[in-house]
């Protein structure tokens, strides 16, 4: 009978029929009179069996891992207790090699091997992503992006795509990537926040999923030079509204991701202990965090006890989050250690209406705040940071033409995934990660 062309995922529906399936030889095993191939086509894995005369052909005898191949045959269930993906296997009656891979000792099996040194792995990231774990993370990434978009649709928020080439900074001049824009100075965007703020009067609440760029000189496991930034901005809200909106967004997105059978299965494989966090998230002020760090003898960056006004560095933040072992909304950071645009707390002008969301194992995954909505305070904010207001005229104008209390946040997708998929570093949550010294492949 003629064969129907299929993809591996969903092949259960084709059991009993003669099919044609194409992919890469993921694993290969020769047994006395049989050849077992685990075929991979990106959608899944399928056990295929060559028997009898098929095993004696030149192509079968010289077959190598990662070669591309088209196989014809009938899919049938395997007996209880025997291990094959989806509980079935393809009994081949014909096959064709499409592109042969070299094989031998230098095969990518070694590169993908868990114990290969990191440098080799990242040089060969284009091969590493063929591996089961790396590709699982990338599939979860796609599922999580889908889940965020569903959540924002539920919340009635519109997606926009602000520019990546800009002439303003958002999160401090020290991490700006500068480039020559037709003879003018320009930067790669650090955050689309300022542009999102300008959309409120025309589009209502908005979000974007866009690359952000940071020239982070330090090598840490959670800093990239380019990362996917999920940002949202909401109008006519209070600080409490911002916190509950953020909590709702995170929880709803996780629920959507787990409701997808494939994504939920992959998360289970990558991070067997993962559970959707309980609501409400623990809320803790910066001042209380400083007290907590003092009480637990966790020193600041200079090795001294923490004091009000100190930055909570990555190591201290992670220790605290791991010890508490719950998502935390850390709120009300001092004015001096936060960005120029953040609104002051009306009850305590030393601090801002700001929030970081911290997750066990990673620390900060979200930074957000209420924004200054008055002209005077914003001009003072520029002055405090030593920023010239000129290139910001369009941002400043929002305070002139119908201002409103508003706020928003930015979430680092790779950090969110590192938490969800239990990866040691955000580098393994990006398709082709960039960090200090690495811009290939
Ligand atoms: O805390 P950040 O700097 O806040 C902002 O950019 C705000 N303007 C966002 C907003 O309110 N619209 O960055 C937000 C998040 C961080 O919490 C972190 O998850 C991620 O972006 N992030 C990075 N992720 C990977 N590598 C880096 N170098 C990152 N820098 C920030
Ligand atoms: Mg931050």
From TrEMBL:
Keywords: Aminoacyl-tRNA synthetase, ATP-binding, Coiled coil, Cytoplasm, Ligase, Nucleotide-binding, Protein biosynthesis
Domain Aminoacyl-transfer RNA synthetases class-II family profile residue range list: 138-433
UniProt catalytic activity: tRNA(Asn) + L-asparagine + ATP = L-asparaginyl-tRNA(Asn) + AMP + diphosphate + H(+)
GO molecular function: asparagine-tRNA ligase activity; ATP binding; nucleic acid binding
GO BP: asparaginyl-tRNA aminoacylation
GO CC field: cytoplasm
Localisation per UniProt entry: Cytoplasm
Major subcellular site: cytoplasm
Record EC number: 6.1.1.22
Family of the protein in this entry: Belongs to the class-II aminoacyl-tRNA synthetase family.
Protein name (Swiss-Prot/TrEMBL): asparagine--tRNA ligase
Lineage of the organism: Eukaryota, Fungi, Dikarya, Ascomycota, Pezizomycotina
Region of the whole protein represented: 139 to 579 of 579
């Amino acid at each position: 009978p003629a064969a129907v062309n299929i993809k591996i995922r969903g092949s259960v529906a084709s059991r009993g029929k003669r099919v044609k399936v194409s992919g890469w030889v993921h694993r290969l095993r020769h047994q006395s009179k049989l050849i077992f191939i685990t075929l991979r086509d990106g959608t899944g894995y399928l056990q295929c069996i060559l028997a009898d005369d098929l095993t004696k052909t030149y192509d079968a005898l010289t077959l190598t891992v990662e070669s591309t191949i088209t196989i014809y045959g009938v899919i049938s269930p395997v007996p209880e207790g025997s291990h094959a993906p989806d509980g079935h296997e393809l009994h081949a009656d014909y096959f064709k090699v499409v592109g042969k891979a070299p094989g031998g000792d230098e095969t990518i099996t070694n590169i993908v091997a868990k114990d290969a040194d990191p440098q080799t792995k990242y040089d060969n990231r284009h091969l590493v992503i063929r591996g089961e774990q790396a590709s699982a993370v990338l599939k979860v990434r796609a599922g999580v992006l889908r889940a965020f978009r569903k959540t924002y649709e539920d919340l009635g928020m519109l997606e926009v795509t602000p520019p990546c080439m800009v002439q303003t900074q958002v999160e401090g001049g020290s991490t700006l990537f500068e480039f020559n824009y037709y003879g003018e100075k320009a930067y790669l965007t650090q955050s689309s926040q300022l542009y999102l703020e300008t959309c409120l009067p025309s589009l209502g609440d908005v979000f974007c999923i866009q690359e952000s760029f940071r020239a982070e000189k330090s090598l840490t496991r959670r800093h990239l030079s380019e990362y996917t930034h999920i940002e949202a901005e909401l109008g006519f809200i209070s600080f409490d509204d911002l916190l509950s909106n953020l909590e709702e967004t995170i929880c709803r997105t996780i629920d959507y991701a787990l409701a997808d059978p494939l994504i939920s299965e992959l998360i289970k494989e990558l991070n067997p202990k993962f559970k959707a966090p309980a609501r409400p998230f623990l809320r803790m002020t910066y001042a209380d965090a400083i007290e907590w760090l003092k009480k637990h003898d966790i020193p600041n960056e200079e090795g001294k006890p923490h004091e009000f006004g100190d930055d909570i560095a990555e190591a201290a933040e992670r220790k605290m989050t791991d010890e508490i072992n719950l998502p935390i909304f850390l709120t009300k950071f001092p004015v001096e250690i936060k960005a120029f645009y953040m609104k002051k707390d009306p009850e305590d002008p030393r601090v801002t209406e700001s929030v970081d969301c911290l997750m066990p194992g990673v620390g900060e995954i979200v930074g957000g705040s209420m924004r200054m909505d008055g002209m005077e305070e914003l001009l003072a904010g520029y002055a405090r940071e030593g920023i010239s207001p000129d290139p910001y005229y369009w941002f400043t104008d929002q305070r002139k033409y119908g201002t409103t209390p508003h706020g928003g946040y930015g979430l680092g997708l790779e950090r969110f995934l590192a938490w969800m998929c239990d990866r040691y570093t955000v580098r393994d949550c990006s398709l082709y990660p960039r960090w200090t010294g690495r811009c290939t492949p």
